């Protein structure tokens, strides 16, 4: 291979954050500022190298579609299972790599301002570096097992980051919740990997694809189940219903962490993984015995509906949240639901497109929210903000760009990616298309509610009236993120991904004017519905919150609004469900311990011995003649026995 | 009537059983002691009978030994019983239950 040497750049990109994490933890942990510099330079260097690699790979991409860096063999169990740590470079991983390291770099720099003065700065940056390492590992993995390893590493480092302020009980609980909820999904993922390996005899993506291409029915009746199991992993990481509960709570971590983990990288890992193994999801809708009631549904159908349901549910909840970060968290959930739905509807290109643009504008929104929170002395309730537009112009304008992109206002990036998803939905399922439109409406509604309440109107608290613009180290990343948030729609990201994921459906874009109006050309219905949803959402938000000092919705909607505010009681349901299960299991264990182990085992043994002892004691009379009699009787018995034989 | 080995052995067995019964049933230590002697002599009878019918003197030598040992045993046993009687004022087995814990 002529590209061998340059490809090994990928190893350096992967290794730098790990090196930084190790160096900080082992050697320079005492100096917080120096640790921060090391961590930041590592991730920025990774970003620059990623850009370089991206450029170098253009040629091989055009020729072969993908290339692999020299792999290391890790585990070799005969010819059946060979696992290597290898880096797979194709369009999917390359662009994702650039996005992850790029957004990651900006967030690292922003953290320097946001976390200023924290006494555990070096621990923070070490965790951040470890997280970057794990995330880059997921992106570059060339087989399922390696991906799973880094998948778990992401889980661990997110646990460290969410629980960074571990002395706060809520943060300590949130990190445990995130980790355990993720483990639930990962268990399914692991089962899925084992099933795929068992049926196809390989865990490497290329090989799997080749084998499936040769014999499409190789997965047999298990195809749908294997797909669903693998989806469980994505369900945990990308926080899909019913494992969505961890993400909003994870907002207990520092805001840059929320931006990094819960906007651009970790939660995107699930969607990325789905696109990576998209070839596994056939259209088979046959299920093994106990799941026969699912016949007629393919794994993709289920994925699409779960995604759609999550999108709708999270959007409804977001409408009645008052914590600025929680609104964004539920918005993230909702957008992830969108992406998962797009994958399920057979549109991985649209999904990855939205993932990329979403990474930009959601990171922007989170960082903007962080800037607001820092300015208001860690006040997170939007009803205690207000009037921030005049005091924090930079934050406001960048936040506005993020909001417009998220809502899908042309010509901002979100419009194009969301439009692709709507177009896919309109082609495949009318019901899901309507759900998606409603979600788009709700998205605009809650985002402008946030914007009106937090930035416009009058100051509603002491903290808000004393707010001032954040330092430059925090506003520059906002500005830098605002650029792709606004413009990423014109960079041909969809055609770039499409060339790999759905080569048959790629259209070639024309000049910039044509690009702006492209959505109205190829799927006018979807574009019109999307725009209509934005207009209605904006109008509703303006009417209700344009000049509001308190939330008018609870009075109008009553119980429903309360249910939305209380997140439809999922946490409470889970809590009681888990409580009941624990209680039942504990009761069973208690019963077993009391009756089987203590009763039958210990008391039974002791009782038998005692009864035997009591019986035998009767024989010991102390009477000489009894002994003599027994002795003679025994002798007679022995004699009878001996003589008989 | 010809008297054979079986007749001697039957007498010996009868004597032995009487001895055993005496040891088991009688409550007086002295009588139990005499019953024990009866059992020894039953054995002696069997030895002598075997010796006579097998034309082998070993059995008779054994009998001498047994008689000697029995005499010594009687001396020791009677001494024990007398000592016991002095201590407990009884030679009745049912009063001697110190072996019961």
Fold and architecture overview:
The complex is a heterodimer of chains A (645) and B (101). In chain A, strand 2 (72-77) and strand 3 form a beta hairpin. Chain A is built from 29 helices and 4 strands. Chain A is mostly helical and 645 residues long. The N and C termini of chain A lie far apart (89 Å). In chain A, helix 10 packs antiparallel against helix 13 (266-276). Helices cover 74% and strands 3% of the residues of chain A. Chain A has a two-stranded antiparallel sheet. Chain A has a two-stranded antiparallel sheet with strand order 2-3. Chain B has 101 residues and is mainly α. Chain B is built from 3 helices and no strands. Chain B has helices at 5-25, 29-54, 58-88. In chain B, helix 1 (5-25) packs antiparallel against helix 2 (29-54). Chain B is elongated, with a radius of gyration of 17 Å. The N and C termini of chain B lie far apart (56 Å). The model of chain B has no long low-confidence stretch (mean pLDDT 89). The interface between A and B is small, with 9 and 14 residues.
Structural features:
A: 645 residues; mainly alpha; two-stranded antiparallel ribbon; 74% helix; B: 101 residues; 0% strand
Q: How is the topology of this model organized?
A:
The complex is a heterodimer of chains A (645) and B (101).
Chain A: H1 4-7, H2 9-26, H3 32-56, H4 58-64, E1 66-68, E2 72-77, E3 81-85, E4 88-90, H5 91-114, H6 121-140, H7 144-162, H8 169-200, H9 205-214, H10 223-237, H11 246-249, H12 255-264, H13 266-276, H14 299-319, H15 324-344, H16 348-375, H17 388-391, H18 393-407, H19 413-428, H20 430-455, H21 462-465, H22 472-487, H23 493-501, H24 512-522, H25 524-545, H26 553-557, H27 559-565, H28 570-619, H29 624-644
Antiparallel strand pairs in A: 1-4, 2-3
Helix pairs in contact in A: 2-3, 2-6, 3-5, 3-6, 5-6, 5-12, 5-16, 5-22, 6-7, 7-8, 8-10, 10-13, 10-14, 12-16, 13-15, 13-16, 14-15, 14-20, 15-16, 15-19, 15-20, 16-18, 16-19, 16-22, 16-23, 18-20, 18-22, 19-20, 19-25, 20-25, 24-25
Chain B: H1 5-25, H2 29-54, H3 58-88
